[in-house]
Amino acid sequence: WKIFIKNLPMLFIVMLFILFYFGYNLDSKQSRSSFDAAVFEYSTYQYKEQDLLMYRGSKAPWLLRKPDGNTTRLKTILYWNEFYGRYDTYDFGYGHDPFVENNCKVSDCYTTKDRALMSLDEFDALIIHIRGLPNDWPKSRDWDKQSYVMLAIEAPIYLSEYRQLENLQFNWTMTYRLDSDFPIPYAWMDRIKPLPSEIEAYIKSFGKRKAKNSPSNDKVGLLAQLNYPSSSSTDCEDLSRTDGFMKDLPQHISIDVYGDCGDLSCTPKSVRDCYSELEKKYKFIITVETADCKDYITEGFFTALGLNLIPIVHGGGLTNYSNFAPYKSFIDASKFESPAALANYLKLLDSDDARYYEYFWWKDFYKKGFHHHQALCDLCAKLHDKERESFYPDMQKWWINDAKCTPANKDY
């Protein structure tokens, strides 16, 4: 007994270890069994991609257990290739959680970049980024259930890969164009409260009130243009050939050109920070796209719009800026008869604070929003739609011919 009592603490520790060991293995077997059945608890949302590695290669349907006890099949979405250094489109994420965290109306989907997670023809959808199209295309495809989604955010005239589209057969599109199945323009302007019943009267009243309280004479510069070439789309020569209207504008008004293609430079390195610096000095900024394409509007316009600057654009082509920005929030050069007329109007606004501030009335009613994740939500819903059949028999016609893209070097 003395020996037993002396060794009792050690025996107690051994017993705890044995209980823990068998309890852990029993729990692991139960957990693995639940994965083999491919049933995930709906209430926890804790399942990430790494949790399903043991499930690789299984042909069982992926089921999600709902709070009412019923189950639903998860639709699986494969990011086929990279999207500017990442795989998940606009940092949406992986697994099931992003669909819940983004409040998708239909969240019963699962995203991954792992091609080996299951048999390739079992994925419900493949998102294929056409910039830098891969050579390793799927060798087989289940045409009855699998959908290909074309992803693109750059103008087609700057993507040499578009020539391969005639060999591809896509079901849906996810591009900057508003007529895409899942539109992803650079940004949206969201209305955050109801508009005044008398817009024009409100705008004039706002301008006068703002001019009285915040005169604009603290800005010593009038008009600026920021040009940064993009390695993927253009160079300084392209920018120097900007449409004839804007090219003739400096003959009638002074324009300070910043950036890699200009005579002036910004201290900040990023384009966005440079805009913030220009905001302190200038009243207007030219934001001309390097390509005239349907619905093609990039960062410069939306960045300027979000600051205390009035963007000057050249619509009149394929892009209707009114589809993207509030009324009287920018100046469209195409509405003027000549560069001289535009220059005179800018000088008029410069001398009349009330009229100048009318272009900022909308800031109390709208804010810039990024809804790129909504495209993935909509894709998930579409995959669960029994009437989802869609097919582009001639993607090159839709993406190239219908877009009618031209470099922005035309004389307007």
From TrEMBL:
Q: Which GO terms describe its molecular function?
A: fucosyltransferase activity
Coiled coil (UniProt feature): none
Q: Which residues form the Fucosyltransferase C-terminal domain?
A: 235-398
Q: How does it sit in the membrane?
A: Single-pass type II membrane protein
Q: Where are the transmembrane segments?
A: 7-24
Q: What is its EC number?
A: 2.4.1.-
Top-level EC class as recorded in UniProt: transferase
InterPro entries per record:
Glyco_tran_10_C (IPR055270), Glyco_tran_10_N (IPR031481), Glyco_trans_10 (IPR001503), GT10-like_C_sf (IPR038577)
Alphabetically sorted, this entry's keywords are: Glycoprotein, Glycosyltransferase, Golgi apparatus, Membrane, Signal-anchor, Transferase, Transmembrane, Transmembrane helix
Q: Does the keyword Acetylation apply?
A: no
Reply yes or no: does the keyword Manganese apply.
Answer: no
> What are the Fucosyltransferase N-terminal domain coordinates in residue numbering?
74-186
Q: Subcellular localization, per the record?
A: Golgi apparatus, Golgi stack membrane
Q: Which Pfam families match?
A: Glyco_tran_10_N (PF17039), Glyco_transf_10 (PF00852)
Where does this protein act, in terms of pathway? Answer: Protein modification; protein glycosylation
A cellular-component GO term for this protein: Golgi cisterna membrane
Q: Which family does it belong to?
A: Belongs to the glycosyltransferase 10 family.
Q: What is this protein called?
A: Fucosyltransferase
Organism of origin is Lepeophtheirus salmonis
